[in-house]
Amino acid sequence: MSHIVIQGGRKLEGTLTVQGAKNSVLPILAATILHPGRTTLRGCPHLSDVEASIRILRHLGCKADWAGEDLVVDASALDRWDVPDHLMREMRSSVVFLGAILARMGWAELSHPGGCELGPRPIDLHLSALRQLGACLREESGCICCTAQHMAGREIVLNMPSVGATENAMLAACGAEGETVLVNAAREPEIWDLQNFLCGMGCKVRGAGSSTICIQGRQPTSDSLHTVMPDRIVAATYLAAVAAAGGEVELRRVSHGHLSTVTAALHAAGCQISGGEGQVVLRSQGRLRSIGTVRTAPYPGFPTDAQAILMAALLRAKGATVFVENIFENRYRHVDELCRMGADISVADRVAVVTGVPELCGAKVRCTDLRGGAALMVAGLTAKGETRIEDIFHIQRGYEDPVRDLSALGAEIRLE
Ligand code: UD1
């Protein structure tokens, strides 16, 4: 089992190109099965979650192979409609295969994804959307069995703008007769990337980015090539790292607009930030100030996925910052680990108060989840002495090679 070891205290400087977005490519990989032919994904990040999706695709009978930086999926021979328990357990977001398998096969069997490190992760909204399209669902012994011989488009109102439920409903609706209108849909940029992908293969989808998405089902599909959008949370991680450690970074292949709440927070903390076409530059003296209250919210609000990362950047800031986590029930598990490094954080229910300390000390810490792990890297880069991060398989779910990227900026970081 490998660890990440960081010798903190170095200023960071350089240029990085941001990898493709995990949260975009996972639903897109599920969507590839809507087309009984070849799909090429360009800029697909090399991540353990992507490998888990590839295993599901191969189990279903698809071919999925890397061709350099491209991932080529051929779903023409798809002949199964089940995802077994061991593959579902590898990745919670594999539930998005449900809508895609139903649309292609009219039948699907998946084991229940269950809870995860962020607390309970119900899928009631996903299942309700599929039922409204005409799918019959039975849940028995942790298994969800769906039949959907005649799905018909209709208006579906989500009572919360869930990202996963929006994606599942979009994919299922591609196999339904007529038009589906999703109301109160999630507005995250990854939904827009999924729409672009679907349109590129011939589906008729519009409205992504707004809260109403219209899908015209049962359209003829064709082979396509899609470039995966850049990962805004990976970009946020590297911006936070340089903000906290001090220095200057130019991120390439990013969308400045997608990062606006994160860059606004880092600007308020004292960083200089400028952005151009596909590029963001951040300069920091390394000594930040607190920024009042940060509330996570669905896009375009402050992303829950950047909460731990920003918190790590502000551990040594002058003053106190309050975090309010509104999306997930249990998203402060990184706090105990950050406190091992000398951070001063108190948590009550969904609120965490971070009071800046003059110095953090390197320590042996453990990743509790993907973004919590990223937060430990950010904190380690600014801590005095050595930080040893264990259970880095969480980080590898979403970061292609953070040791390569941070070393390129001059960090003293290694895999051991
Ligand atoms: C996605 C992202 C995750 C991000 C999250 C919120 C992927 C692979 N993951 O997760 O990184 O943190 O969006 O931006 O894209 N909920 C229900 N019932 C449901 C579905 C969700 O109550 O059927 C609740 C969840 O418990 C949570 C909230 O809705 O409290 C938001 O969840 P959702 O937007 O669905 O997040 P995910 O799609 O799981």
Short synopsis of the structure:
The protein has 416 residues and is an alpha/beta fold. It has 14 helices and 24 strands. The strands form six sheets. The protein has a four-stranded mixed sheet with strand order 22-23-1-24. Strands 2-15-17-16 form a four-stranded mixed sheet. Strands 4-5-3-14 form a four-stranded mixed sheet.
Task: Walk me through what this model shows.
The chain has two domains: 4-18 and 230-415, UDP-n-acetylglucosamine1-carboxyvinyl-transferase, Chain (Alpha-beta prism), CATH 3.65.10; 82-226, UDP-n-acetylglucosamine1-carboxyvinyl-transferase, Chain (Alpha-beta prism). The model has no long low-confidence stretch (mean pLDDT 96). The chain has helices at residues 22-31, 48-60, 85-90, 97-105, 124-132, 163-173, 189-200, 232-245, 260-268, 307-313, 334-340, 370-382, 393-396, 402-408, and strands spanning 4-7, 12-17, 38-42, 63-67, 70-74, 82-83, 107-111, 136-140, 143-147, 155-157, 179-183, 204-206, 212-216, 224-227, 247-252, 272-276, 279-284, 292-295, 320-324, 344-348, 351-355, 364-366, 386-390, 412-415. α8 (232-245) runs parallel beside α10. Helices cover 31% and strands 26% of the residues. With 416 residues, the chain is of the alpha/beta class. The strands form six sheets. Strands 22-23-1-24 form a four-stranded mixed β-sheet. It has a four-stranded mixed β-sheet with strand order 2-15-17-16. The protein has a four-stranded mixed β-sheet with strand order 4-5-3-14. The chain is elongated and about 65 Å long. Bound molecules: uridine-diphosphate-N-acetylglucosamine. Residues 23, 26, 93, 121-126, 160, 162-165, 186, 304-305, 327-328 line the site of uridine-diphosphate-N-acetylglucosamine.
